[in-house]
Amino acid sequence: MLTGSAVTASAADGGRPNNEQTQNHGSGQDENRDSDAGKGGRHVLVLSVDGLHQKDLDWYVKAHPNSALASLVKHGTSYTHAQTPVPSDSFPGMVGQFTGGNPGTTGIYYDDTYNRALLPAGTTDCKTTAPGTEVALTEAADKNPDALDASQGLTGLPASIMAMTGHPETLLNPAALPVDPATCRPVLPHQYLKVNTVFEVAKSAGMTTAWSDKHPAYEILNGPSGKGVDDLFTPEINSKAPAPFTGDWTQDNAATQQYDGYKVQAVLNEIAGKDHSGARNAAVPSIFGMNFQAVSTAQKLPTSDGLTGGYLPGGTVPGPLLSKALDNVDASIGKMQSALSAAGHTKDTTIILSAKHGQSPTDPAALNRVPDSPVIDGLNAAWKAAHPGSADLVAFSTNDDIMQLWLSDHSQAAAQFAKDYLASHPAAGNDVNGAARTVQTSGLSRVYAGSEVAGYFGTKTSDARYPDILGIAQTGVVFTGGKSKIAEHGGASADDRNVPLVVSGTGDDEARTITNPVETTQIAPTILETLGLDPHKLQAVQIEGTKALPRR
Questions:
Q1: What residues contact residue 242 under an 8 Å CB cut-off, 6+ apart?
Q2: Taking burial as the number of CB atoms within 10 A of a residue's CB, which of 131, 331, 404, 527 is the most buried?
Q3: Given CA atoms 221, 223, 225, 229 in this order, what sign does their dihedral have?
């Protein structure tokens, strides 16, 4: 199994991973620390720069020693061997940071998955409908995925977007959500999460919480109670961007930077003692922050705004588009630092910088774009040839630079059939210049099947959520049709998982570097410890023994 992500023990209650790099994650925190909760007006500002690698941060700080990012490093603790969960997707990555849990524990394997126990969206006959359905916690869950406000009906968009509701669960389309057979009611994202979040723990201690992210489905961060985040600002990133842009906000890096700017303004408003809109007074949140998207799109886009995307040959130096996106993020963080200073909150605010995921590959020469449809079509054809009269074997798939397949036949024999097929067939693709390339073993370096997948994630084989097939992509392979991407995330490679992690705050007068391996799931107990709260109140901490990050 893969170092840092393989699990060696089975799980109960949704998964109890025994991660090889986190076996010592017992918290050992004071069970009575909540008696001091909230004293001193402590705040934690969490910033996720999606796509950012540790080597990107190292390069930027060296090239810009007086930058805002450099100041975080100079006055903080840097964990230079931090890794995200696998899959390295936005949803498990963000959920991991705020719960302390990996997918086998949280039940969140991707933002778009399949559940063998739930009923299809729109089901009204819950007694006779067969279980098994897609769970799309993406823009597809919005009432209007084409609108920046997801259907709220604001006029004057995008300029009026700051007036978007802080309760985006109201913008989700119940008819697009899976149905619980027990209640015959749609399952909201927060109801789908198996464990509680830092926001819920803070709320129970009387603290104020806020967050800004890219889809209304991020209301999952409210946690099972549905009440964890007081002010949740989620403009839809995959909505149609205004002229002069075409497509959604991710298809032009300038558009992505503009989109990020709305969330930056939300954070600035919150620092100033307002809600995200800036229109209403509110307490400065104890936990708040946002994710940035501009670095991620600059890594993926071949070109944008007349600039080349991704990295220079060799993959260690950002190209012109990515450098510009990093400058934009740095300037935004600088604004937040200035706002904290102006509001008198520099000394009582800890900033945690990390990323939901990295991006792979960084070296353009390593790229192999492989359309996944022919691979799946071939697998289905082989299955039908061997089992005349059968339906397609693949019921649902999620393939970026990882392959996750949910099968119509949930048997070990069917999973082994799929594994054998994938391991024995080449796949056609193309390189960064569009030249044809062929990859062996379907572009995969390793395939897990059936119970092997459950073991990888540390969950029971009775878990209705994990995929029947987990394919670890060869380095540089991106499963995509066409030539519109030069990188992707979701996989288990170093470029996918090796993200920065910096904790910068009061008392951090000098830079400190910790080179021991850590995981971004350790951010959750660190947030609570910083606020004087008990990390053991997180269910995932209890299940996995996730430790707070080592400090000075």
A1: 157, 158
A2: 527
A3: negative
Which region, left, alpha or beta, applies to residue 89 given φ > 0 means left and ψ of -120 to 50 means alpha? beta
C-alpha distance from residue 162 to each of 146, 153, 265, 293, 429 (Å): 17, 13, 8, 18, 43
- 169: its two tokens: 């669960």
Distance from C-alpha of 161 to C-alpha of 154, rounded to nearest angstrom:
7
DSSP per position, 264-287 = HHHHHHHHTTB-TTSSSB-PPPSE
**Residue type, position 388, single letter:** P
The C-alpha atoms of residue 163 and residue 402 are separated, in whole angstroms, by: 37
For residue 34, is it left (φ>0), alpha (ψ between -120 and 50) or beta?
alpha
Encode pLDDT of 199-253 as tens digits: 999 999 999 999 999 999 999 999 999 999 999 999 999 999 999 999 999 999 9
Using CA atoms, how far apart are residues 121 and 285, in angstroms rounded to an integer? 35
Rounded to whole angstroms, the Cα distance separating 374 from 426 reads 11
* Largest Cα–Cα separation, the chain: 72
- Measured CA to CA, the distance from residue 16 to residue 461 in angstroms comes to 13
pTM of the model: 0.92
Detail the DSSP E strand segments found in 330-374. Answer: 349-354, 368-370
29 confidence band (pLDDT: 50, 70, 90) = very low
Transcribe 453-468 into DSSP letters: HHHHHT--TT-SSS-S
Which distant-in-sequence residues (6+ apart) come within 8 Å of 243 by Cβ?
A: none
Q: Which tens digits make up the pLDDT trace of 461-491?
A: 999 999 999 999 999 999 999 899 999 999 9
**End-to-end Cα, the chain, rounded Å:** 33
